[in-house]
C-alpha cells in the first residue's frame, strides 16, 4: 500500500486525535505506514497551523479538552458503510437504540455533499435485511444499558428466572452480547 498524500495523512491524524483520548506516535506511524519521525513532523505542522495538540511524555498525543474541529467529509465508501449499518440497526428490536442511531445518521447525512446524499438515499432504498422482518420493537433499554456500562452504574432490574420466579436485582452491567436478534446483558 502506498503512502497517502501528506494532507490526507494530516486530516486523518486530526480525526484520530478527536476520536481517541490519547494516541501514540507509533500507532499513527503504523496506521499510515510512515516512520515515527514523519509523525513527529506532522504533529509539529498541526501545532504550527493552530491546532492545539497536547503531548503527554511517554503516553502520546491528544487534542486539548474541548477543542473540536468541524467534521471531516466522508468518502463514498464510508458513507455507504454507514447507510448499510443504518438499515441493519433499523431492524434492531430495541426502540431506544434505533431512535438514537437514526438521529445520529441524520446528522451524518447532513454533512454529506449533495451527490453523496442522493447516492445514500438510493442505497437505503435498495438494501433489504431479513432480520426482524415484522420490525417488532420489544425493548427500550439498550441506550440505558450502554450508558450504565460506560459510567459504571448499578441498575435495579426486574428479573424472571427459568422457573418463572420474579425478583428485583441490583446489577452492574459489564457488557452487551448480540445474538441473532436479541441482546444479552453480561453482569
Number of strands: 6
Shape, per Cα inertia axes: globular
Q: Judging by the overall fold, what is the CATH architecture of the largest domain? A: Orthogonal Bundle
Q: Helix and strand succession?
A: HHHEEHHHHEEEE
Question: Separation of termini?
Answer: 43 Å
Could you tell me the CATH topology label of the largest domain. Arc Repressor Mutant, subunit A
Count of discrete domains = 3
Indicate the low-confidence ranges by residue numbers.
none
- Arithmetic mean of pLDDT: 82
Residue share in β-strands: 5-15%
- Write the CATH homologous superfamily of the largest domain: Winged helix-like DNA-binding domain superfamily/Winged helix DNA-binding domain
The biggest sheet, with number of strands, parallel, antiparallel or mixed sense and barrel status, is: 2 strands, antiparallel
Helical segment count? 7
Q: Write down the CATH class of the largest domain.
A: Mainly Alpha
Percentage of residues assigned to helices: 40-55%
Read across the widest sheet, the strand sequence of neighbours is 1-2
Q: For the CA atoms, what is the radius of gyration?
A: 21 Å
Find the structural class using helix and strand composition: alpha+beta
